[in-house]
Amino acid sequence: MDVFIEELVKKRKEGKDYAILAILILVGLVLSVCLLLGVLFGAMIFGQWGQIAGSVGMVLVAAVWYAVYLINNSRSIEYEYIVINNNLDIDKVMAKKRRTKVIELDIKDASIMACIDDDENNDAYKIADKSVKVLDLSAKNPNLYTYFIDYTADGKRQIVLFQPTSKMVESLWKFNPRAVKKYNI
Predict the structure, then answer these.
(1) pLDDT of residue 42
(2) Beta strands in 11-146 (DSSP E)
(3) Helix, strand, or coil here: 113?
(4) Which pTM does this prediction carry?
(5) Which tens digit of pLDDT belongs to each residue from 103-135?
(6) Is the C-alpha dihedral spanning 31, 97, 148, 13 positive or negative?
(7) Within 13 Å and on the Cβ side, how many CA atoms surround 27?
(8) Residues with Cβ within 8 Å of residue 123, at least 6 apart in sequence
(9) Secondary structure (3-state) at 118
(10) Beta-bridge partner residues of 158
(11) % helix, strand, coil for the chain, step of 5
């Protein structure tokens, strides 16, 4: 029997995201004021040519705020978790438009998959040394359990953090019951 499970989770905004938004707005305000002052002084100095500069300046102000909107919107991130039999694919969706495959792994190659809150099975995550690459692909949702997968790719140990549904955990457990540890299911 083939398994296909798909889940889309929206990444919650953190303090860093709000700080970036505040900086974007501040930069937008400063650029807008500078452009408008330039237009005002240009109109006073150049007369009729200043009116043309005023029109161009207003278009440039609109372009600045459109750029602020685009940059802020591109910080909207969702992760799509896809389980197809024993394979787990995680894609990153930015601004609900651009999709990038972040990772594709076979759960049979994992040394362990467990919840980070599972004190009996989370040693691989808790005491990982600095050479281990950690990919945080979780939604940062406190209402969901965060799992980690410890595996080796291209000779390098990696840990992936994600927030699967209980149905996904159950499905992955069927393909590697030795490594997949169910937590509060």
Answers:
(1) 66
(2) 77-84, 87-94, 98-106, 110-115, 133-136
(3) strand
(4) 0.77
(5) 999 999 999 999 999 988 888 888 878 888 899
(6) positive
(7) 15
(8) none
(9) coil
(10) 133, 151
(11) 40, 30, 30
* Beta carbons of 161 and 137 less than 8 angstroms apart: yes
Amino acid residing at 95: A
User: Of 180, 183, 2, 4, nearest to 81 (Cα)?
Assistant: 4
Please tell me the least confidently modeled range out of 13-22, 44-53, 154-163.
Answer: 44-53
Q: In what order do the strands lie in the sheet with 156-162?
A: 110-115, 147-153, 156-162, 133-136
| Cβ atoms 148, 125 nearer than 8 A | yes
Tally of residues, the chain: 185
The C-alpha atoms of residue 4 and residue 28 are separated, in whole angstroms, by 45
- Answer for the pair 183, 115: CB distance below 8 angstroms, yes or no: yes
Cα(132)–Cα(156) distance, integer angstroms: 8
Q: CA–CA separation, 24 vs 154, rounded Å? A: 39
- Give, for 7, the enclosing helix (H) or strand (E): strand 4-10
Contacts of 131 (CB under 8 A, 6+ apart): 157
For residues 14 and 16, give the distance between their C-alpha atoms in angstroms, rounded to a whole number: 5
Sequence-separated (6 or more) residues with CB below 8 Å from residue 38: 53, 57
Outline where the chain has alpha helix (H): 15-46, 48-74, 123-126, 166-175
